[in-house]
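Bump. Still looking for Zinc binding dehydrogenase structure tokens.
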Amino acid sequence: MDELVIYGTPKLTGERRKVEIPKPGPDEVLIKVVAAGLNPKDWKFARRRTKDRAINAGDDVSGIVESVGSNVFEYKPGDRVAAFHRMGEPSGGYAQHAIAPSSTTFLLPPRISFEAGAGLPLSSMTAAIALYQALGLPLPTMPGKKDLPLLIYGGATAVGAFALQFAKLSNLGPIITVAGAGIDFVESLDAATHIIDYRQGNVAQAILAALDGKPVHHALDAVSARGSHEIITDVLVASGGGEINMLDPVEDEGWQWPDTVKFSRTFVASAYSQKHEHISEEQAIADGEFAYFFYRYISHILATGKFRPHPHEVVSRGLDGVVEGVQSLCEGKVSAKKLIARITDTPNQ
Ligand SMILES: NC(=O)c1ccc[n+]([C@@H]2O[C@H](COP(=O)([O-])OP(=O)(O)OC[C@H]3O[C@@H](n4cnc5c(N)ncnc54)[C@H](OP(=O)(O)O)[C@@H]3O)[C@@H](O)[C@H]2O)c1
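Sorry for the wait, here they are.
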């Protein structure tokens, strides 16, 4: 079969190659890939790799189950699914077939296209782990409206937009978010009570003005770049302290968190129980259990229309268009949408 591998040194490059169709392990699913979602992590993981260490960085997959491992009881050949592939491991989604753990695979309801579904697995689980496992906010299964203010920095990012939808389902409020070119999209989600335009500057003051004296103690930094942590820290400190969850490391290596601000990191690999510098083994195991049920809950809320995929744009030429798409993500040119590669669009397979 065809697979695309990418590497970032000396510059972002992709190469298509022929490999054997992989076989699923006992707890894995083999998927005939229809669409693969591109992510900012693709260039981040590839940037220090030279050609000899090129990887198939496709971790967001949608398609049809082709075969399953001996322990898999939930899926069968022919099922329409989306799945989160283990990052950095072989047999990713930039290929005609991919392998994913059955625990991070979920059914796509008929109303959700493969293209829309391919943008779901990684970013939606990042949002869910950040809100519920890291920040400990109430799940949508907890009834009643909660007077629990939440700041989601980056409402037009895929992770931020999914977090906004989950926060609304959890009945949290007020929900404050920050966006720019993607403001109209964020408004269309009808989840945030206040949307701050970062292009106008003075973002911390604008957030505090929107809160009108109400403290906010929980924040998800779905941008984790361009000084977002400093703005959030100012808001939390002005609120008497709180917790920030970040998706990427703080850019400023000398940065010190104030005593009143608790910092945590989300690393979505914990969805398949992988630990990380900031995520203990115990936490990773707990996140793996959480991801198992929450992916199945995502199938349910997609089917009932309570949750919707991020808008998407299909790149041209399938696998051959991935590098250009990843480069646009790297350059910050993509606003409020997922880029998706449709495998059958790839020429000369
Ligand atoms: N740790 C993990 O496991 C993990 C998992 C997933 C993602 N991440 C990281 O999380 C970040 C978001 O990922 P993603 O896939 O959700 O990104 P994305 O959808 O590609 O993000 C694009 C959006 O970023 C927004 N943005 C850029 N600068 C901003 C700013 N200063 N303030 C507010 N919004 C800003 C833009 O909003 P406008 O269009 O409104 O300008 C744009 O729509 C990336 O850094 C990614 O690497 C980490």
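The mean pLDDT is 97.

Edit: fixed formatting.
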